[in-house]
Every structure is written in structure tokens, then in C-alpha cells.
Design goal:
single chain; mainly alpha; 11 helices; Regulatory protein RecX; cytoplasm; RecX_HTH_2nd; WH-like_DNA-bd_sf; Regulatory_RecX
Length: about 200
């Protein structure tokens, strides 16, 4: 049909010889799709990868493990994170309970990590309790550690780093120090002892 309005079909064999291709475009496309699906199954958190959706069964479990290898999550946080991509919320709750029972997930570990991290950042007990509440973790998990911490010393060290060792006599400066330490989450009793402590005390 010399006068056909349709263009001549591409000769993939000729193109393959011309460009040195070992696979036809169709074969390459299929290979790319399979590779992509495999990559998604193995690593859900790679940058530029689409997030998995509608996960169930082993794929949901694999995703949960992938998430937990990157960071410790509280039980509540993990449920919400997985539920975003799972098919059924009930399956997520059951899975997280199982992971918690097997100690792959631990609110105790998250509480201890949060306490340690917040103390390094110069945060007092009130800010730490707030951080735990955000993660929906029972403060009772680290109650002993909170009681055993010398919060006066913590507040004093923070005050020294910010304002030096001199005890302020100016009411405005004292008020400023009190506001600073209250914002950091310290109790007023610990704050007053910290800002009035002298170097030789």
C-alpha cells in the first residue's frame, strides 16, 4: 500500500543493530517494571521512590521492619505511620501488637531515648513529659529516671551556659532567667535554687 496514510511500522531489529541495543524497547519496559516492583518491595523508604499503598500481609510486615530499622517508634506512632499505607487499620494494630510483644517495637526504649535526648538538649522534666505525651507514651515508664535526675544541677548548668556563674541581683535579669528555664521545662523550685546558687555552694 504505497499511498497508505499510516506510517511504516518501526523495525526494532534494525534499530537494535543501529544503536547496539540488546533488548527491544518493549522488553526493556517490562524489565524496568519488574525491577521497579522488586525495588519497591525491598526498600520502601528510598528517596524518589513512590510510597507503598494498600499494603497487606507480608508486604505490610516488610514495610514495618523497614521503618523500624531506620528509627525507634512508639506504638501509637508506628500504628499511624503504617495505617497511612495499609489496606486495613485493624491489620496494622494486630501487627504492631505482635511486633511489640516480640520486642521489635518498644515504648520503653523510645521513652529512654527521648529522656536521654531531651536532657542533652537542656530540657527539664515538664518538656520531657510533653515530648512523651506527644508520642503517646506513659510517663511511668521512666518515672524512676525522672525522680533520680538532679534537675537543680541540670537547670544550673543551663543557666551558667546562658548567663554565666554570677548570681543576678537585678530583678529584670532574674525574671528573664526564670522565664528562660521555665520555657525549657524546669519546675520553679529547681529554677530558684539554680539561679541563686553560687560557685562555692
Amino acid at each position: 500500500m504505497p499511498n497508505s496514510k499510516f506510517p511504516k511500522l518501526l523495525d526494532y531489529d534494525a534499530l537494535k543493530q543501529q544503536f547496539g541495543e540488546e533488548e527491544s524497547p518493549t522488553t526493556q519496559y517490562c524489565h524496568t517494571q519488574v525491577t521497579q516492583e522488586t525495588d519497591d518491595a525491598l526498600d520502601f523508604d528510598e528517596e524518589n521512590q513512590p510510597k507503598p499503598t494498600g499494603l497487606t500481609g507480608s508486604r505490610l510486615r516488610s514495610y514495618a521492619f523497614a521503618v523500624l530499622t531506620r528509627k525507634e517508634y512508639s506504638k501509637a506512632e508506628l500504628i499511624e505511620k503504617l495505617a497511612t499505607w495499609a489496606m486495613h487499620r485493624e491489620e496494622v494494630i494486630t501487627l504492631v501488637e505482635e511486633l511489640s510483644a516480640q520486642n521489635y517495637q518498644s515504648d520503653q526504649r523510645v521513652a529512654e531515648i527521648t529522656l536521654s535526648s531531651q536532657k542533652r538538649k537542656g530540657k527539664g522534666p515538664n518538656r520531657i513529659k510533653m515530648a512523651l505525651k506527644t508520642k503517646k507514651i506513659d510517663t511511668g515508664l521512666i518515672l524512676e529516671e525522672l525522680k533520680e535526675t538532679d534537675w537543680v544541677e541540670q537547670a544550673y548548668q543551663l543557666k551558667v551556659r546562658k548567663y554565666g556563674t554570677e548570681v543576678a541581683t537585678d530583678p529584670k535579669l532574674k525574671a528573664k532567667q526564670i522565664r528562660f528555664l521555665m520555657y525549657r521545662g524546669f519546675e520553679i523550685d529547681a529554677i530558684m535554687k539554680a539561679i541563686n546558687r553560687r560557685v562555692d555552694d
